Amino acid sequence: MSETGTPQMRAVSQDAAGGPEVLKVITTGRPVPGPTEILVRVHAAGVNPTDWKTRDSGRFLTGSSAQPFILGFDVSGVVEAVGLGVTLFEPGDTVFGMPRFPHPAGAYAEYVTAPARHFARLPADLDHVRGAALPLAALTAWQALVDTAQVQPGARVLIHAAAGGVGHLAVQIAKARGAYVIGTARRAKHDFLRGLGADELIDYTEQDFATAVQDVDIVLDTIGGDYGARSLRTLRPGGSLVSILPPDDSLPADQARAAGVRAQFVLVEPDRAGLQAVADLVNTGKLRVNIDSVLPLEDAAKAHALGETGRTTGKIVLTVAP
């Protein structure tokens, strides 16, 4: 409680663009839920590439650059209070979600507020660490493969960086939809991916996936660069290349049209129906999230440095409340 009587909370903030060292623990005012919003006491917060890219540039995807700001979008926690008109949840409910993305959400904090429909009930078999690891990555995979590419049983799906945060969940979502899944990953991660159901694996350091794979229906590009153009060579006519990287010259839309395939960029968005679909997969044993590392909120800078190595398997999570 501040001297003025305003409830306070801990958070990780930055007041300048830069490396992990700009992240600092601060004390700030606790947010208050507005109409249709809930206040969630955060138990764990997921760490995603968009976090360290925003930190480094000092700018969110929306263009907002007002500083200081609090990073983070993935949340698992307990409803503390509800705003006017909320009927989906009540205090004490356990929830997970990806609030407000791509607008600032402030998940690296002890409390967050957001529209109630940006959350879903946490699956009963998940703890808060795994709950916080799921939303952004799983919704990205779901919206890319199911909503955008409309993956069907028997489809051949190529997933790049298959052992990454989005990739390892995409492998399982595609398998749950009855697809034949091909993944690119270093050989050391092949056994892990086979355990998730991958049918075929390519070590991109040993062979060119663009010549090793043919007749693919869907490519999920989580890497960017020249991967998009090279992936076109693997697709059959009528196939789809879906990228989760912001569109630039690396998304070969014109080349795709000339080849008779589609190239699309998908930006994940809050999606209650998608969260519930993900929860259903968890509850039926068809989806599990792999945790690479768990660190306390105070070590957010270390979490970012680890993520930026590009060598993690699965997700990094910050613990906030006990």
Briefly summarize what is shown.
By secondary structure, this protein is an alpha/beta fold. Helices cover 26% and strands 28% of the residues. It is globular, with a radius of gyration of 20 Å.
What does this structure look like?
This protein is α/β, with parallel strands linked by helices and 322 residues long. The protein has two domains: 8-134 and 289-319, Quinone Oxidoreductase, Chain A, domain 1 (Alpha-Beta Complex), CATH 3.90.180.10; 137-265, NAD(P)-binding Rossmann-like Domain (Rossmann fold, 3-Layer(aba) Sandwich), CATH 3.40.50. It contains ten helices and 16 strands. It has helices at residues 49-57, 128-133, 135-148, 165-176, 190-195, 209-212, 227-231, 253-259, 272-283, 300-307; strands at residues 8-14, 24-29, 37-47, 69-70, 74-82, 94-97, 111-115, 119-121, 156-159, 180-184, 200-202, 216-221, 235-243, 262-265, 291-296, 315-319. Strands 3, 5, 6, 7, 8, 15 and 16 form a seven-stranded mixed sheet that branches. It has a six-stranded parallel sheet with strand order 11-10-9-12-13-14, with helices on both faces. A three-stranded antiparallel sheet has the order 2-1-4, with no helix packed on it. It is globular, with a radius of gyration of 20 Å.
